[in-house]
Amino acid sequence: MKKLLFTCLLLTLFALPQVSQAVNKSFYFTTSDGVQLYVRMAGEGKPCLFIHGGPGSWTKYFYALGGDVVEQDMTMIYVDQRGCGRSSSSETKDYSLARMVKDFEELREHLGYDKWTIMPHSFGGTIATEYAYQHPKRVNAAIFVNSTLYLPDALESYITNGARLLGKPESEFRKTGGSIGEALNGVAYQLNQQNLMYKMMYPKKEMFDQMNAVMDTTLNWDFGSNVWNFSEYEQDFTIKSASLKMPVLVISGNNDLSVGPEHYKLFKFKNATYRPMDTGHCPYQEQTALFHQHVRAFMAKLK
Questions:
Q1: CA–CA separation, 91 vs 65, rounded Å?
Q2: pTM for the model
Q3: Is 20 helix (H, G, I), strand (E, B) or coil?
Q4: Contact 211, 61 (CB under 8 A)
Q5: Which residue of 24, 105, 128, 287 has the fewest CB atoms within a 10 Å radius of its CB?
Q6: What is the average pLDDT across 256-270?
Q7: What contacts 244, CB < 8 A, 6 or more positions away?
Q8: Which of 211, 265, 205 is nearest to 52 (CA)?
Q9: C-alpha–C-alpha distance, residues 181 and 234, integer Å
């Protein structure tokens, strides 16, 4: 009789739903080519890889400025990309898109996840789209936060909006025979000189100051210094987005002048929910509660 009761108790315990444990740890993961990636895991629930922007920034700007609210719903995996933040540089200067994608896939295998959600921000949208395109069976869902999928379009928007803020014609920056990079640099320089740079990302300067306070001048910027040597980052990823079938949440900012408030309209995802917000480039910082509401509602619908 006791044996029967014990057996029933075991069956009952195993039948109970498994409750995920909260995670809070950081470590370095070594890639197959010897680069050490800084990884921070926090939260509980389904795994979600955060893919930061820049190019060349780091993950802290997201979780330190309100983005950590999503840790209530997911286990967030924050990775400083190779040559970025607290991660080491590539000795061979391999910052190719293929290598970036491989880094994430190697980390997924190391962590033992069959699938995960991906959450790119800003320039991270290019890498995230390529990752999902190359490994669709490994992506449960995607949350694109003010993301760039076609860099030339975003840069054109930056120049147009920057010139408007400066009260100057675009022709002043678009010299005959000049590159888009030269025009961009000219706009950025004058925005800095006139203390107007914050308006490209935020409606309020204090939020721009908060973001800058999170940045660290000792950060590794090797990827940011070498990214333009790899033309594949400038391809039109909206074309590849048309082949992605996983559920996608697209959050954009109606006042995001750095990517362009209309940029998200170029996306071609098959199964997307669009949530424009009255923010600039960082909705997780500017309207944290509403940002969380959109993410939580989206995640609740996933199987």
A1: 32
A2: 0.91
A3: coil
A4: yes
A5: 24
A6: 97
A7: 129, 132, 133, 136, 142, 269, 270
A8: 211
A9: 12
